[in-house]
Amino acid sequence: YAAVVVGIASGALPYQSAVTLLTLPRAARVWHAVRTETDRRELTTKGLRDSAQLHFRFGLLLAAALLIAR
User: Fold this and answer.
1) Residue 56 pLDDT
2) Long-range contacts of 17-24 (CB under 8 A, 24+ apart)
3) Are 19 and 1 in contact (CB under 8 A)?
4) How many CB atoms lie within 10 A of CB 36?
5) Rounded to two decimals, what is the model's pTM?
6) pLDDT tens across 43-59, in order?
7) Residue 31 CB partners (closer than 8 Å, separation 6+)
């Protein structure tokens, strides 16, 4: 997230890239699950799967932003 903000501020990324910040609430939930969950099964579900979904959504939004900014 910091890289996106710095990229926008420096002009390396278009302002439309800020749409990726919409995934911050999910990132906070994933971070919380990884930090607090002790059950391996729940950690796999909440940590690994949700992390993969977060990365997918972030990447999809960033790609869409870059295409729109063209």
Assistant:
1) 97
2) 17/62, 17/65, 17/66, 17/69, 18/65, 19/61, 19/62, 19/64, 19/65, 20/58, 20/61, 20/62, 20/65, 22/61, 23/54, 23/57, 23/58, 23/61
3) no
4) 10
5) 0.87
6) 887 788 899 999 999 99
7) none
